[in-house]
Amino acid sequence: MDLVKIRTFSGPTARLDAKLAESVLEAEEIECFVPDDGAVEPIPFFEVHLMVHQADAEKAIEVLETYFDAPGPAPAE
Questions:
Q1: Is-contact 7 49, C-beta < 8 A?
Q2: Which residues are 7's β-sheet partners?
Q3: pLDDT higher than 80, residue 74
Q4: Of 6, 8, 19, 24, which has the fewest beta carbons less than 10 angstroms from its beta carbon?
Q5: Cα(57)–Cα(37) distance, rounded to whole angstroms?
Q6: How confident is the model over 11-51, as pLDDT tens digits?
Q7: Torsion sign over Cα 47, 65, 37, 19
Q8: CATH at residue 20
């Protein structure tokens, strides 16, 4: 099982953002893994990596780019 890191989340919401990304990928039937998912950190400023199988990496990256990096709705005038 070849896992590759496709995204790194950082800051106080890193684990929450990684779990959201994990849910998005699972909805697309892409298996993913957040290392040390059960870890409790004393300081919430750390990095969380999101891993997928190498064969799914390209599709997973596209899905997450669409979800996280797409521009939001235009502001109301």
A1: yes
A2: 50
A3: no
A4: 8
A5: 20
A6: 888 888 999 999 999 999 999 998 875 555 555 557 899 99
A7: positive
A8: 3.30.70.790
Burial of 59 per CB tally in 10 Å (0-12, 13-18, 19+):
middle
What are the two backbone dihedrals, phi and then psi, of residue 8, each rounded to the nearest 5 degrees? Answer: -120, 130
Q: What is the pTM of this model?
A: 0.77
Within-domain flag for 77: no
User: With contact defined as beta carbons under 8 Å apart, do 14 and 34 qualify?
Assistant: no
Tell me, yes or no, whether 75 lies in a domain. Answer: no
Residue 15: enclosing H or E segment and its boundaries? helix 14-27
Dig out the tokens for 51 from the structure: 């891993």
